[in-house]
Amino acid sequence: ALGTLPKPVATACPYCGVGCGVLMTADASGAITASGDPDHPANRGRLCVKGSALGETIGLEGRLLHPMIRSRSGTLERVSWDSALSATAEGLSRIARTHGPDAAAFYLSGQLLTEDYYAANKLMKGFVGTANVDTNSRLCMASSVAGHRRGFGSDTVPGTYEDLDEADLLVLVGSNAAWCHPILWQRMLATKQARGARIVVIDPRKTATSADADLMLAIRPGMDAALFSGLLVHLAETGALDRAYIDAHTTGLDQALARAREIAPTLAATAITCGLPEADVATLFAWFTANPRVVTLYSQGVNQSAQGTDKVSAILNCHLATGRIGRVGMGPFSLTGQPNAMGGREVGGLANMLAAHMGFSGTEIDRVGRFWGAPRMAEREGLKAIQMFDAVEAGSIKALWVMATNPAVSLPRADAVRRAMAGLDHFVVSENMLSNDTVNSGAHILLPAAAWGEKDGTVTNSERRISRQRPFLPLPGETRPDWWIIAEVAKRMGYGEAFDWPDVASIFREHAALSSFENRGSRDFDIGGFSHLSNSDYEVLAPVQWPVRTPTDLGDKRFFAEGGFFTPDARARFIAIDQPDLKAEPDPAFPYLLNTGRMRDHWHTMTRTGKAPTLGRHRVEPLLEIHPDDAAVEGLAAGDLAEVTSTHGKATLRVAVEPGQSRGSLFAPIHWNGETASHGRIGALVQPFTDPWSGQPEMKATPVSLTRV
Ligand code: SF4
What we know:
Blueprint: E1 9-12, E2 21-26, E3 32-36, H1 49-52, E4 68-70, E5 76-78, H2 81-99, E6 104-108, H3 114-128, E7 133-135, H4 142-152, H5 162-166, E8 169-173, H6 177-180, H7 182-195, E9 198-202, E10 215-217, H8 224-237, H9 243-249, E11 250-251, H10 253-263, H11 267-274, H12 278-290, E12 294-298, H13 300-303, H14 308-321, E13 331-334, H15 341-347, H16 362-372, H17 385-394, E14 399-403, H18 407-410, H19 414-422, E15 426-431, E16 445-448, E17 457-460, E18 465-469, H20 482-492, H21 504-516, H22 535-539, E19 544-545, E20 572-573, E21 592-597, H23 613-616, E22 623-626, H24 628-634, E23 641-645, E24 650-657, E25 665-669, E26 702-708
Parallel strand pairs: 6-7, 6-14, 8-9, 8-12, 9-10, 11-20, 12-13, 14-15, 15-16, 21-25, 22-24
Antiparallel strand pairs: 1-2, 2-3, 4-5, 4-16, 17-18, 18-19, 21-26, 23-24, 23-26
Helix pairs in contact: 2-20, 3-15, 3-20, 3-21, 4-14, 8-10, 8-11, 8-12, 8-14, 11-12, 17-19
The chain binds iron/sulfur cluster.
The site of iron/sulfur cluster (SF4) has 14 residues, from α1 and α7.
């Protein structure tokens, strides 16, 4: 029995970017269970298996419940909050004073609530004076952000989930939505049933999603942009371009089309480059041409790439060229991985964003500095995640505060990341769990943060919908909300006035006010209508899509149907992309390409889903999917153990022989962790190549070798 709730508490799921509404209810015994919120527009009462099992994940086993500091002998010892906060503040101030602000960094998380994220960004970018604030969202959707900004002049998702109900063609690129965005996938299947919509899946690997597709294109790894270049050429040559839209609202088509013709001059050439049957490519092109109501959804198979931004641009080019954007049932749609990747983007959680979707121009730095009353604004973009940990390794970053994420498992070259963090001068972790790979990498100060179910704030889902996450459990032990921890550190650094928030609603109001400050329609993100929201209205805030420009004008549901892009001339940009290729090809020493991704029933490094017996049954241990022919060549059978090795690390995994796997390509899940390679910590193998625009690492195609154990 965990407690009693007088009535169901409406909150939001802490897992994927669908952002489902959840009702948490206690039964007579006090046991708490989750059900779908019928009033939440994202899920209309449905939950997937992960959301349904939330009640199993809220126990206190393994929780960090008290502040701790590592003693000289290396043991973690319980201390008072005042000691831990003062030590955190003293270390940050000392490093910034001695080595300059850029010697300090925060590494944040898409699990943080918007208000937590806002507080962290304000402290570093306005008061410490560095933009070395990045987030695990860099691994998730940074390429979509960069693609949006390049094409639209802003990080705007133009459409809404309702478009999935109204489409005639749904094209999923690099997305296993059936497992990773299950409630949206059910919505797509309902559209298929209700209006006969066709579904196309473009993915090197056959998945649960492709099993229900009308057309599956098992594309050669890394060639998505070549396929969409071929599509752009096809649209131009079949008279399918929307000349009126192009002339009125865009610029750069000629250059983008010329480049597309170099990359994929004909349908036949496109098919060869992409490793696809010509007839299947022809079918996709014909369906796309014939169906104005087309939504192209893309996820990590596009984003997690050293050419991820180009892949996004190649997709946006096709939608801009046909004017299929911002209208009912059509548009490009980025499926975000995490529950609050979007909220993090909105407050400037990425090192190359300032706040409220602003960048680092002189005007924007000045504007945010005046709004915050900031003494020491960051003057330029900070280090993105991979660069940040390279700087930790090189010793130029000496103070690191990791919040709500586990980089020792999830980052590429995870073994090197773990070693690098052990050498930090000042290493702070705010966490739910007492022991994880990042804590065990030598963290000096542990700050016990409130977990989902205990904390209070807002998140934004993939369709720009802001939802409340509400607490339904008391704060256990001495845990505190992340925003409170950050504010208390800021006060001890001498910035009391700017961080003197009495409650979380005050932060939301400040965030809303900044979004409309000197905006005048020049920025997409505007929730100024919430600047004076009362605490009681914040408490009952219903899920709402931004923009919310005034309290009564809830703004536009969709963007860009009539142009109005956030570029200086209000026109979208077609992008001439680079020649698609992979950073590293297989060779005799490393003959396979390792693809990584999610399992249906687990989330990230399993600190929450690992507690739920229901979720443990689907896949019980780390595994390696391999094509039957490759398994035969390697002398492997289902159930064998195989050691997978890259130039960066190794892991031991259980072999699963899968005919849906492409030859030469392996797949392993990202979730498992632990001290040694035998725990299947797959991040240890992943190469650190990044996209030049987004800084997002290539996590889908690392050359590896394979031996039977
Ligand atoms: Fe949670 Fe995503 Fe499942 Fe919805 S689809 S219940 S947000 S994991």
